[in-house]
Inverse folding.
């Protein structure tokens, strides 16, 4: 072949925003965010993090929007910029340079989840610095932004969710390409390709081109022979599918061991997606029971250091979840990202405040932390969450010299009211600020105790 | 001008000296003798919660050492200290520190000591022997039968009885007068009934109810109901009705809003399933408790709380479906 043909994924890359299939929410978010920049205003979050499975149009959409809104674009792939020095040099420079001709310059960083926090040491931190100092919009893409190491990055960015494409959306896309290439195709063949692509348009187009250019037509016989799973490791979407749809234990176990997702995150994924696929209460319980026992095995493996036990973890989370299903029906609900990691991030600081508060009150009220947590804090919460009289809460906050975070923990939605009342008291009675209230003769001691850390102080004295 | 800063009334109105303690008269009289003689054996205080055991220990130390008594007392809580090793280290270090001038010993106060395993109690017994010259132990417990015999035999035993109605109501009236609380008489009866003789609980309820305005029977019940997150019952109800996802969202909301741990949630569910306010077939209560105990154990072992609790809710959903058929 003398003529080297252009790849269809490039030839049929969306040119306009309307060419990008689906993703209406994402389109709206990105456009309104960039419009802010175009008007010379800096949005609350200076970076976007687009996340979703591969081949659903994350990068293409950014390119199309940039074209329509007249933005320049500096596109970098993970392999170009992953080291700390590169990030500072390339990204950092671009982030602080004003564009001359166009409305603005978008810095597009592809596959940020490709940055390895160990191998590319300091890369993520450098990126965080760049975002904090940028005067240009930064957009990043990632398949899986939920790993712990991306937490700081997540907090700095507005997260934009990209949905996996449906089979029908992909079939329609393939049909359009065949029409424009004037290639004969069978609907069934397109359906086969689409179902094997697991919602990845790029993979589907590549498969289509391989068959069409090799044979000049796309029939069900050809695609059956040619289109198979392309990777050795399988991505999370396929892993989930293979576990939920498997009928044999070995297939489900293979899905676990071959998944590119590590088993701990896979447990999180299963945890949030079981109710999206199983509806019968018996199936649901059997699946959760298996998963729950998988985590029991896992904690035993960790505690004992007997990593051989891991094999049973895989048995329970794969075949255990898979064969829990006895009814034929599998729900069509789409998979979702695990929520728990995000929730944990909210939960952790609250629990720390609760712990600190209980420890402090336990010294003052002479009861164990657990008694304080279960029998004292609930009543305090009640006082602090009473919207009609924040002054009582504020007086207590003053009496115990509670930190803002503790007040926030106790008051929840009522925090602002309490803080406002507290500020008012502080202005009116400055002499009482910062003191802890003790009764009578103990007052002198109070100062001393405050500077110590409870028990430890007494042991050393 | 009186202070605008406020503290919890359980702390504000806690008796500081043995003379301040108006109930548990026999106990207090015997403790006063120790103060007079400036000597005492190891002590074991046993009785229901909120009857003044810990308060009495502090008042005793106060009367022995004066205002700075907490310098000469090591306060440990068996349910907060992780293991006997932590306790041993702390006691060892404390026993070495200087003693007060006119009293020949220091005090180790070990609260909730019935929460210790019998192994830990054996180790504790050795500590009591080892440091007996310089240190006296006061053990506080709800259930003295859970304290091993060798420790019981080394201690002078003090039984605290549940507070009588006049004790509780009398104290509440004293606080009410001092704080200028508006109230109706029946509300105090209600508080006593709910508190089951637990002074700490009674005072906490009073303060929370007072913060809402006038203390009435209605506001007392409102406070008690609200102090137990109602989301727990709602979560159970949703699960039993078959709405797994709804109940799970409720669970997560509960944990986020109140910062509860998995174990806290298990305990709250346990309380709910035997409450008559939850209308379910009686045998279901046992089936739930059975699995709940298993989940509780797994959490103690360190298993993932979100997944263990999800399994529990899935179990409730299944039971709910079966009991409808």
């Amino acid at each position: 072949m003398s003529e080297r043909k252009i790849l269809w994924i490039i030839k049929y890359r969306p040119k306009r925003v309307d060419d990008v299939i689906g993703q209406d929410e994402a389109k709206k978010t990105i456009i309104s965010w960039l419009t802010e920049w175009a008007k010379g205003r800096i949005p609350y979050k200076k970076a976007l993090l687009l996340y979703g499975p591969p081949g659903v149009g994350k990068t293409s959409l950014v390119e199309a929007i940039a074209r329509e809104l007249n933005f320049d674009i500096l596109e970098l792939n993970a392999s170009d910029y992953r080291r700390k020095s590169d990030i500072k040099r390339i990204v950092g420079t671009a982030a602080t340079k004003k564009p001359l001709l166009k409305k603005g310059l978008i810095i597009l960083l592809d596959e940020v989840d490709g940055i390895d926090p160990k191998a590319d040491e300091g890369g993520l931190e450098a990126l965080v610095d760049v975002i904090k100092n940028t005067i240009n919009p930064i957009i990043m893409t990632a398949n899986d932004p939920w790993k712990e190491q991306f937490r700081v990055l997540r907090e700095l960015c507005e997260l934009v969710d990209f949905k996996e494409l449906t089979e029908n959306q992909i079939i329609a896309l393939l049909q359009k390409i065949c029409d424009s290439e004037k290639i004969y195709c069978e609907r069934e063949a397109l359906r086969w390709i689409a179902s094997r692509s697991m919602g990845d348009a790029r993979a589907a187009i590549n498969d289509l081109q391989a068959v069409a250019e090799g044979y000049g037509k796309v029939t069900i016989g050809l695609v059956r022979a040619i289109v198979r799973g392309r990777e050795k490791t399988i991505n999370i979407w396929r892993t989930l599918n293979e576990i939920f749809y498997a009928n044999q234990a070995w297939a489900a176990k293979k899905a676990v061991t071959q998944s590119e997702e590590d088993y701990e995150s896979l447990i999180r994924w299963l945890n949030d997606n079981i109710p999206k696929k199983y509806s019968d209460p018996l199936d649901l319980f059997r699946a959760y029971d298996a998963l729950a026992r998988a985590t029991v095995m896992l904690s035993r493996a960790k505690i004992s250091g007997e990593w051989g036990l891991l094999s049973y973890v895989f048995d329970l989370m794969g075949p255990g979840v898979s064969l829990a299903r006895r009814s034929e029906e599998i729900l069509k609900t789409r998979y979702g990202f695990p929520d728990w990691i995000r929730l944990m991030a909210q939960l952790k600081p609250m629990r720390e405040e609760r712990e600190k508060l209980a420890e402090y009150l336990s010294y003052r009220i002479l009861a164990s932390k657990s008694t304080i947590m279960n029998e004292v804090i609930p009543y305090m919460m009640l006082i602090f969450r009473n919207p009609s009289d924040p002054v009582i809460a504020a007086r207590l906050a003053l009496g115990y010299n509670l930190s803002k975070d503790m007040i926030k923990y106790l008051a929840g939605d009522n925090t602002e009211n309490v803080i406002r009342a507290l500020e008012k008291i502080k202005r009116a009675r400055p002499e009482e600020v910062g003191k802890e209230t003790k009764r009578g003769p103990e007052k002198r001691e109070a100062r001393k105790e405050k500077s110590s850390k409870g028990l430890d102080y007494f042991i050393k004295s | 001008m009186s202070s605008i800063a406020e503290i919890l009334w359980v702390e504000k109105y806690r008796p500081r000296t043995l003379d301040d303690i108006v109930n548990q008269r026999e106990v207090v009289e015997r403790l006063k003798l120790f103060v007079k003689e400036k000597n005492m054996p190891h002590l074991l205080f046993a009785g229901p919660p909120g009857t003044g055991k810990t308060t009495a220990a502090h008042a005793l130390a106060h009367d022995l050492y004066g205002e700075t008594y907490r310098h000469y007392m090591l306060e440990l809580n068996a349910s907060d200290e992780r293991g006997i090793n932590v306790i041993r280290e702390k006691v060892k270090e404390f026993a070495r520190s200087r003693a007060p001038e006119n009293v020949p010993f220091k005090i180790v106060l070990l609260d909730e000591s019935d929460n210790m395993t019998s192994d830990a109690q054996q180790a504790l017994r050795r500590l009591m022997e080892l440091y007996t010259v310089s240190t006296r132990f006061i053990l506080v417990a709800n259930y003295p039968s859970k304290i091993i015999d060798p420790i019981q035999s080394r201690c002078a035993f003090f039984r605290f009885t549940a507070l009588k109605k006049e004790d509780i109501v009398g104290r509440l009236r004293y606080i009410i007068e001092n704080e200028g609380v508006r109230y109706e008489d029946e509300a105090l009866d209600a508080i006593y009934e709910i508190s089951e003789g637990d002074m700490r609980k009674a005072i906490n309820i009073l303060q929370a109810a007072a913060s809402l305005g006038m203390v009435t029977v209605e506001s007392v019940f409102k406070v008690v109901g609200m102090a137990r997150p109602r989301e727990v019952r709602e979560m159970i109800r949703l699960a039993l009705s078959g709405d797994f996802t709804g109940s799970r969202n409720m669970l997560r909301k509960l944990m986020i809003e109140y910062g509860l741990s998995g174990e806290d949630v298990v305990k709250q569910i346990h309380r709910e399933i035997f409450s008559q306010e939850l209308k379910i077939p009686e045998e279901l209560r046992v089936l739930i408790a059975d699995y709940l105990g298993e989940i509780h154990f797994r959490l103690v072992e360190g298993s993932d709380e979100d997944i263990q609790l999800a399994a529990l809710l899935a179990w409730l959903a299944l039971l709910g479906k079966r009991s409808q058929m």
User: Anything to note?
Assistant: Residues 5 and 12 of chain B are 12 Å apart (CA to CA). Chain B has 15 helices and five strands. Chain B touches chain A through 77 residues (CB under 8 Å). Chain B has a mean pLDDT of 89.
